[in-house]
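Progress against Task 2.4 (sequence-to-structure conversion) is shown through the following example record, which the project officer requested during the mid-term review.
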Amino acid sequence: MHNQRSALRRSSRDKIIAGVCGGLGEFFGIRPFWFRLGFVIAAIPGGVPGIGLYLLLWLIIPSE
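Structure tokens generated for the chain above:
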């Protein structure tokens, strides 16, 4: 049996800012909380790593 994943999209249902973490959670099959936590932790040392990556994904990943 082959497990099919849907295309990576920003979530319109599970979003706080732009739906990036919700979309990543749906795509990888894990809770979006873990992606949100990862972005917050990455933003702690000056903000650029977490916020920059989030903004980049916001631009790259299409919405639902």
